[in-house]
Amino acid sequence: MADYQAPITDLSFLLEHLIKADQLWPQLGLHDADPETAKAILEEAAKLCEQVIAPLNREADETGTHLTAGKVVVPDGFNEAYSAYCEGGWGALGGDAQYGGMGMPKTLVACVEEMLQGACMAFGLAPMLTAGACLALNAHGSDNLKERFLPNMYTGQWAGAMDLTEPHAGTDLGLIRTKAVPLEQNMLGEALYAVTGTKIFITWGEHDMAENIVHLVLAKLPNAPAGSKGISLFLVPKHLPNEDGSLGARNTVSCGALEKKMGIKSSATCVMNFEEAKGWLVGEPHKGLAAMFTMMNYERLTVGIQAVAVAQASYQSARDYASERLQSRSLSGAQFPDDPADPIIVHPDVRRMLMHMRSFNEASRAFYLYVAQYLDIAKYSQDDKTKSQAEGRIALLTPVAKAFMSDMALSAAIEGQQVFGGHGYIREWGQEQYVRDIRITQIYEGTNGIQALDLLGRKVIANKAVILNDYCSEILHFVQHDLSGEWQKEGAKLVECIHEVTALAQELIARAGKSPDVIGASAVDFLHALGLVSYGYLWLKMAHSTEHIQSGGVASEGAYSAEFLAAKQYLCRYFLNRELPRVSFLAERIRSHSDDLMVMPASHF
Amino acid sequence: MADYQAPITDLSFLLEHLIKADQLWPQLGLHDADPETAKAILEEAAKLCEQVIAPLNREADETGTHLTAGKVVVPDGFNEAYSAYCEGGWGALGGDAQYGGMGMPKTLVACVEEMLQGACMAFGLAPMLTAGACLALNAHGSDNLKERFLPNMYTGQWAGAMDLTEPHAGTDLGLIRTKAVPLEQNMLGEALYAVTGTKIFITWGEHDMAENIVHLVLAKLPNAPAGSKGISLFLVPKHLPNEDGSLGARNTVSCGALEKKMGIKSSATCVMNFEEAKGWLVGEPHKGLAAMFTMMNYERLTVGIQAVAVAQASYQSARDYASERLQSRSLSGAQFPDDPADPIIVHPDVRRMLMHMRSFNEASRAFYLYVAQYLDIAKYSQDDKTKSQAEGRIALLTPVAKAFMSDMALSAAIEGQQVFGGHGYIREWGQEQYVRDIRITQIYEGTNGIQALDLLGRKVIANKAVILNDYCSEILHFVQHDLSGEWQKEGAKLVECIHEVTALAQELIARAGKSPDVIGASAVDFLHALGLVSYGYLWLKMAHSTEHIQSGGVASEGAYSAEFLAAKQYLCRYFLNRELPRVSFLAERIRSHSDDLMVMPASHF
């Protein structure tokens, strides 16, 4: 397998030309985040990821994590990598400056996330979960809790974990049984609760890489309303801190078992037992689910980032293998007659797989940065209209980012494995691990089916497609007004697809009024259609920018090689010709007789 | 995970109504294979597979195989299962009666293969490789070699292995380096050779389940022509038999290592070292590749069967889970208000996944039997024209069976895992193993990309689509003449797609004449289009038969429940509405500017 190479050039290109960070960041008052600082951050992160973390990935998958006497034993190198991550201050990158964070924009943090996840996703989950817990705590915790916990979490000295799922309650969290009983006792100046229950699928719920783990736990207060409106959020640390901030008594939180999984084997997926464990309420009683959802948009985007990060690693190896592996001759005649065979990259079918991978990977990267810019705008903009538009975009595009990016990443990684032929199936070559690792991104943080329902039901139909139409107008405007002659011609394919998607939305609004099952029957196809047009849009934006650079329209001082710029244009055409047309098929399927899914009685399955 | 249930009802339905075995077998002079015998064979095979083999599958994946002091240690239960398989005479089922085989038709053998592979694919590979070796030996070996080896291989006392690949030679076998040097010595009455070289990816190349292993090895004779025209086939047994048939000296064949793989972990994938190992030539010198290809059609079909077999196991578990797992409420209102939630099968998106799986699995089963019938006809028919048509169908449809069935099986198994949500990612539930196991079927026995090239280049373009058009005429004739009113209307969708496929073939013939890369650029899409129309055809045939049964047109004596018959019709409509329309997308892609794959210089990747 190839050494992981952080995609710094592409990230810089996107920050500069897609996001136009040099304008966006100052507009939002983010004066610490200038392009020079960003460049230094990307380069430092790349060093850590390439040199310290990525070399652990393959072997750690073989070792896995183990539970010994209640302790999680991590693979060799993880403790050192975690220390290096913390010492570099990376846990603080996106954190709130008030509590010791660096307050960097998501558009920059996301780039670092891709590198970290691409280097070793199983390891990367630990900082990711900590960052998620920090977001939720920062948004809903009392100032007191934030002061006591956030600074230690930003340094990574204390890690975070999210404890939601129970054996019988996954998608449907309203069914959880974990209880929180108020104690007649205060600690650290706040009312204390005793939390009891069992949680499953708790990523990095237990480990010793950090000296403490801060669990954010969903539980029900006595007499809580039934269902999802009766869920509250609690902070339950592994070690209770003392009043002076030092580490105190061990709390009654323990790891009962580790799951054996398909992939991300070197991450610990814990069964966590809470036995009257002490904790504090975060936010309002019974508003726990809403509190979790505040950070969901960030977490879901990061899951999409994980997926493309790993698919990119798969691409790098597949590209190198295709350039080196000699096998058979080109159908148009030997290309390297002095060698025993041609490198397989001469075969159109191998190129098809590589271009498929790359066209989705690079569009996914552009897409997560496109969505991340709205997270920054929504958080930092002072203008209500701008803010509100950004919130709409986030609502609409987050489920697409999570589900479409992960679906496309899986298919990319499957191609990346296929390029290797038989060697792709052998663990030592690394390609099959990428498939196994990516597979979870389609499942956790809300399955992709749930993302699709969220998109079509809540984000499109519920608001009568207002947000969708606003987004599509932006795309149409770009194609029709910003593109030059040749690209405008290419863009005509996208325009057709945009009209298709907006028309579908109207039809679905009408049909769903009569039969709500229409939403479930069409949701995944609709999400994929919106994903495809979004990627078509971003490819045209990228191609447009490269043309602008080539024509000397911007002084990039040779930052991008001629190959890099030309490749964007080749890939844009490839995507519009070969991938975008899938929209018509999806439209036909959505318009097909959707009863076909519902009429067969359950007993016939 | 659900206990594996052999799909006997569906197999019986297809043998009776699709293949019309009661007419086909006697026509071919296969008088031992009557419907009663077939029924008894299916039931006995089902017992063995359900009760003895399937229970080993999950645990064996965890245990894997291990190499200890040159010996392959197999998981618990494998030795006993192998003995039970042999004692039942299953290894002889399709074997040549002249050497102790039962001479049963492939249409029946294929049904048993599905059960075996569905029960435990890693185990099933051992009998499968033996059967393949028997076919090649029977077709090309001398009578002397056949008499000495085949009877012991049919009993399973001796197993078989196929030794083709070398580290630098996979798809391109012309590059192999293994040498065979004639010895001035005879053994068992035939000239002896010394075979030296290293082979990789040798499935069940070493184990002790059988007392001997018969390797069929590709090697080059001294002064062999370069490339694939200089390859010969040798029989190299692990133990050299004595003149009296008893087991003699150990040959210098040894297993150097086992590969660690993504799946089929309990099968042994061996690096085999041959050090002047003694063996005999099978067939003509330098005609080894052709000898291997005789059995390729059988083996490739069996790989497709493996894929659907495992996808069927995945479906069974997913269906059961969807009926039992309570989570959330139906969008149309609670269906089981007394339960804490509805079973997830009420959700359209879960049904979409289940119907997707089942519509492909059942069409795949019909398809492998449809192809198997031509293998029987080609082998046993006395009529030259019938035989030659059958050979055409086999040539055309074998690559589709191998590649389309395995591609669709992977996507089915991914859905089957998705139905389980988070539990689908946990090994103990079994769903993720199916994905890992199926994945190899897209790779081995010629990658699916190679199958597609074979289809489009050799089987369609080279004969100017004569075979394809003959096949498509059969489909058109069926839809237009055999279908009744309502189904004829449904069939109109298929007619359109058939015209699309035949038109594409003509366009590709014309384009390939100018640019051979067009073949590689279009092959996979074309194969998928042909797969889809084939499945549409078989769904209509199945629906048509069920209608015939329902109307009392045949006396099936209640063999098929009303649910079974109705489900076929629901699934047929589902397939035509939701899956078949993909053909237009594939057509658009094939017609797109195919240079987009070739114009980007290799340095830009």
TrEMBL record, chains A, B:
Catalytic activities: 3-(methylsulfanyl)propanoyl-CoA + oxidized [electron-transfer flavoprotein] + H(+) = 3-(methylsulfanyl)acryloyl-CoA + reduced [electron-transfer flavoprotein]
Superkingdom of origin: Bacteria
Annotated InterPro entries: Acyl-CoA_dh-like_C_dom, Acyl-CoA_Oxase/DH_mid-dom, Acyl-CoA_Oxase/DH_mid-dom_sf, AcylCo_DH-like_C, AcylCo_DH/oxidase_C, AcylCoA_DH/ox_N, AcylCoA_DH/ox_N_sf, AcylCoA_DH/oxidase_NM_dom_sf
Acyl-CoA oxidase/dehydrogenase middle domain ranges (all copies): 161-276
The keyword Flavoprotein is assigned to this record: yes
Acetyl-CoA dehydrogenase-like C-terminal domain boundaries: 473-601
Molecular function via GO: flavin adenine dinucleotide binding; oxidoreductase activity, acting on the CH-CH group of donors
Keywords: FAD, Flavoprotein, Oxidoreductase
Presence of the UniProt keyword Lyase in the record: no
EC nos: 1.3.99.41
Coiled-coil spans in chain: none
Biological role: Involved in the assimilation of dimethylsulphoniopropionate (DMSP), an important compound in the fixation of carbon in marine phytoplankton, by mediating the conversion of 3-(methylthio)propanoyl-CoA (MMPA-CoA) to 3-(methylthio)acryloyl-CoA (MTA-CoA).
Similarity comment text for this entry: Belongs to the acyl-CoA dehydrogenase family.
The protein, known as: 3-methylmercaptopropionyl-CoA dehydrogenase
Protein species of origin: Marinagarivorans cellulosilyticus
Lineage: Bacteria, Pseudomonadati, Pseudomonadota, Gammaproteobacteria, Cellvibrionales
